[in-house]
Amino acid sequence: MGLLSKKDAVLLTDPLADNNPITIQVLGICSALAITAELKASIVMAVSVLFVLGLGNVVISLMRNIIPSKIRIIVQLIVVATLVIIVDLVLKAFAYELSKTLSVFVGLIITNCIIMGRFEAFALANGPWRSFLDGIGNAVGYGVILIAVGFFRELLGSGTLLGFAVLGDPIEKTGLYAIGYENNGFMLLSPMALIVVGILIWIQRSRNTALIEEN
Amino acid sequence: MSKRTDSNSYTIIFAVAMVFIVGSLLAFLASSLKPNIKENERIEKQQNILYAMGINENDASSANFVSTEIAGGEFKKYIKKQLILEDGKVTENSDAYLIDVKKEQTKAKDGKARRLPLFVGEKDGETFYVAPIRGKGLWDAIWGYISMDENMVVQGAYFDHKGETPGLGANIKQRYFMDDFIGEHLMSEAGVFKGITVKKGNNDAVNEDKTDYQVDAIAGATITGDGVSAMIKKDLALYVPYFKNLKK
Predict the structure, then answer these.
(1) Sign of dihedral through CA atoms A194, A198, A200, A204?
(2) What ipTM does the predicted assembly reach?
(3) Is A67 within 8 Å of B220 when comparing Cβ atoms?
(4) Distance from A213 to chain B by nearest Cα, in Å?
(5) How would you classify the pairing of strands B89-92 and B79-86?
(6) Quick check: A12 and A6 in contact, CB under 8 A?
(7) Who is most buried in A23, A34, B35, B126, counting CB within 10 A?
(8) Given an 8 Å threshold on Cβ–Cβ distance, is B5 in contact with A69?
């Protein structure tokens, strides 16, 4: 490992599994529930959070010695909101089609608790490089879960992936539908996101029993 | 942490400076990008109107506009007349498509006369009348364009939204939903305006009955669907006098 010291590499890899923001820290559930009915939306959200969290962590880390502790939460909120609005404006001017897909997420990113959580817990106490790695690690950990949930919800709920019909046509009764398979519309409703996340948490903890909290 | 950053005066100065810096940064960015954004919105309107008329690059299942480069040219080529209906008077105006429907709706609420844009297009010898509509979905605004023939039979529909739920309400801009409107009648034989209702369980999922004034709803998107029904009924009803006049 030339580029990353062992301590730094942990920042990237830890949030992917044993300290995953969604399944272990239970942050960012609100957005995981709102936008995972479609795989495409999950991917877009994952990439947006990657960008905002990576950059935001660096900005907060650079400002960490001058931020007055009394108003630090508000300062963090302003930094996220500014970053998100800048991205939104630039996309609207130069990549209009993409910005239309993203507009739904702007509000969700600003209020994403993972972002505030990482600013508060990590960037305020660490240097920019380490904060950047922590941001990227957590965003990827978040994105992986989001994409997994989106995959199952779209597949079981609509019978499509990224909008492509993979199980056949439900109206023409081709593919799987010919033998009586039905889409489970329930998968598209928000509560099912929590159940899918719950199943992921269960799988993760049964494979790594060290994660189970003691009563 | 140092005590310096804990004092009240430092906190206030920091807050003021931050607001000032962030505020000017965003204001500067917004105003310098405004021309680009406006231009993008203008082209999008042209693409939307053309889409409703059936001039698009749809493939088997997805909805695609004509490309932004040719939108302006195609718009000039196919849209023969742009009309503004106001107080029963009809005037021609080549910038009618730039009318902000939201502003006109607010004007109507305040009791002032509302300008109604209508675009008359021609393709393959057929005439299309395209009207904009706008209403409320579950979270935010929804809008669209409906193209009709002179009997108010729908020839094409385009819907869009600001923030409906992805996978549910946001699907109003999917082909399978928009295409259901094609061929639906808005007016009964007797000339009574009926609108089109987005209805759950209407026993016509493949939409064969075109004179039931109904299309099949999207499961899990009831409020967005109701919003679509409402904006069609409310906004298109205003055009009925024009179409009745047309047939005289």
Answers:
(1) positive
(2) 0.71
(3) no
(4) 33
(5) antiparallel
(6) no
(7) A23
(8) yes
Each residue of A23-57: b (16+ CB within 10 Å) or e?
bbbebbbebbbbbbbbbbbbbbbbebbbbbbbbbb
Largest CA distance in chain B: 84
Tell me which residues of chain A have a pLDDT lower than 50.
1
Q: Which residue of A has its CA nearest to B36?
A: A93
The answer to whether A58 touches A80, Cβ cutoff 8 Å, is no
b/e sequence A128-144, b meaning 16+ C-beta within 10 Å:
eebbbbbbbbbbbbbbb
Which residues from A are below 8 Å from B180, CB to CB?
Answer: none
Amino acid at B179: D
Nearest-CA distance from A87 to chain B in Å?
11
**Chain A residues closer than 8 Å to B162 by CB:** 103
Task: Give B133's strand partners.
Answer: B144
Cβ-based burial of B52 (10 A; exposed 0-12, middle 13-18, buried ≥19): buried
Q: Nearest 5°: CA angle at A136, between A100 and A33?
A: 50
B17: its two tokens: 């400076």
Q: What are the boundaries of each domain within chain A? A: 21-207
- Is the overall model pTM greater than 0.90, yes or no? no
In whole angstroms, what is the distance from residue A120 CA to residue A74 CA? 11
pLDDT tens-digit readout, A117-150: 888 888 888 889 999 999 999 999 888 888 999 8
Contact residues, chain A, for B166 at CB < 8 Å: 35, 37-38, 40-41, 104
How far apart CA B235 and CA B117 sit, in angstroms, is 11
